[in-house]
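The passage that follows is intended for readers who have already worked through the single-chain material. We present the inputs for a multi-component assembly, then the predicted structure in tokenized form, and finally a short commentary. You are encouraged to pause after the input and sketch how you expect the pieces to fit together before reading on.
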Amino acid sequence: MEIGLNHYLVVGLLVFLAGVFTVLTRRNAIGVLMGVELVLNSANINYIAFSRFGTGGLEGQIFSIFVIMLAAAEAAIGLAIVLGIYRKFQTIDVEEVDSLRG
Amino acid sequence: MIQVPFGTAEWQSIAPFSLVAIGGMIALLWAVFAEERPGTTSVMWMSQAGLAAGLVATIALLGSEKASFGGTFALDGVSLLANLVFLLSASMTLFMAQGHLESMGVRAREFYPLVLFATAGMMIMGAARDLVILFLGIEVMSLAAYVLAGIHRRDPGSTEAALKYFVLGAFATCFLLYGIAAFYGATGATSYDGIRAGLASAPRAALIGGVALLVVALGFKAAIVPFQAWTPDVYQGAPTAVTALMSVGVKAAAFVGITRLFLDGLGPLHQDWQRIFWVLAVLTMTVGNVFALVQGNVKRMLAYSSIAHAGYLLAGVAVGTSRAGGAVLLYLFTYAFMTLGAFGVLIALGTGEKPNDDLDDLRGLADRRPLLAGAMTIFLLSLTGIPPLAGFVGKFYVVESAVNAGWFWLAILLVLNSAIAAYYYLAVIVAMWMRDPIGDEPAWESRPYLAAALLAATVGTVLVGLFPSGTLDFARHAFASIVR
Amino acid sequence: MDESSLALPISAVLCAVVVAVMVGASWVLGKRSPNRAKGAVFEAGNRAVGEVKSHRFPVKFYLTAILFIVFDVEVVFMYPWAVVFRRLGWFGLAEMAAFVLVLAVGLAYVWKVGALEWD
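Having made your guess, compare it with the prediction:
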């Protein structure tokens, strides 16, 4: 069987759903960050697949480079924030970090 | 040889945000290399210089109407007027923060350059005519905003605000990227022109999915119900100067981005997104107002009130005509002055030990600090929408454009909501003028920069209210060429 | 509706079903026996060796890793540029110089605030 656009899209969607599932169920802040990275990479799979099989030309591949760069910048800031959280709360459980209430 | 098209139009279109970003970098290096003593203001003034350079470039270019980078980056009335909103609010934020951060014990001089980086991101968002550039603008703005929310590192509330803002913001980014992928796959393009051209032959399911994903992503940034859950906590936890920037600059940038994307790039799909925005607008203004009613903390109340204002703005987007687009832009202009002013008053009330931003802390303020209470009264009346102040003008033209396009129910619901909002704004005014103060007078510091910013906000609130027509005509004209 | 317009919704439904079945099946079939190893921070399946509290790793590792990620990944922009930089001429060189200058500003900042020093 020829591997085509739809196969890549299915892989992308699986990774996307896995990432969303991770973000929604993890209580560990680092785990949430990992979920975000999964979703970003699933978008990358889509861009590359559309770029290869669609009419969009190279744009998609260039865009995926931007996404990789963003993922790194976001990871850096996210990890720094998690470090700050650990220093203040002695935990990185996102459900225990909940002091702001109206 | 590959000839890269880079001419006058390109230089002019990137000049405003580049100057701001370069100013930010210079101020950042200055902040660490000059080793200034605490209490000096050189970093603040260098950052102001960067903003001023962007402002000069923006004013010099007013009236230009050019497409650059193959039509993916706009130099037009909308982007320039939006630049004015971003630059003025950033500049006022810097003035307000001077002294305020030091009294809380925030020594990080990086605050000022970070505000400039966030502003540069907003300016990119305001001019983006390509989903990739919109994405880059959002990220430049957001990454700086995440750090700003947590700039008060010794305060658990600020750190927690940064975490919540970051996690939900990053999650929203995921939806944005997936939405862009849907449009890229369906139309083979990411530029608004390319998407418009490809819409007719694109599979409808992908377009609907793409619209839904983009609404979710941008709804997070603009704090639209049901994507507003982060807003009250983050606004309350972040230092008040940062809250002011988030509720004005970040929100304005999100709305300029939304307006341009949906009215221009996705204009042909208006029957699909107008209904979504109609429902979300009514939900947003109602939820914001109802929750604002029961808040005992004024900062948190203003957070919910800013959600309600996002609802009014979204109503303008839902109407979708060029008249409505102009009204949204004017609204952002008026909203910037009065909201910054209200947060500025809260900053003035805070001392090193205590933020003093509960409703009870404002009781009897008119006796203790009549000028401050007077300014707050003007801002709150303007937020309520009392003529002849700026807030009335903004709301009036959104309602007018809705009626003009035949959206009577939306207009009626908007007016009803403003009536609910009057209750909680007036409660603060009553507390300031008619109640006796509780407790001893806090040891307030005199902060000349903050006073100047508050004066500017007051003048802006009154002036735009009295003479809105120039800005309105400019904004409407700017949208005439966008809504096709 | 042609075939291509159905591809995305079908794959979406398919994915949702697959994930639901996988997660659901493991939840129904899997034996749950919570123990210390599973509840541990690293979730590696093995018991963690030693006490973390007594000798924590210096936060410097963490900081260095964060900085490494940022500067390392930025280089990804140089790959597409390197493929065509001869054909881009002076313009391409100037663009890349501006890009590297921005990175240099970041590096100078990181250096000056002392984030690169180990002690």
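Commentary: The CA atoms of residues 74 and 127 of chain B lie 5 Å apart. Chain B has a mean pLDDT of 90. How closely did your sketch match?
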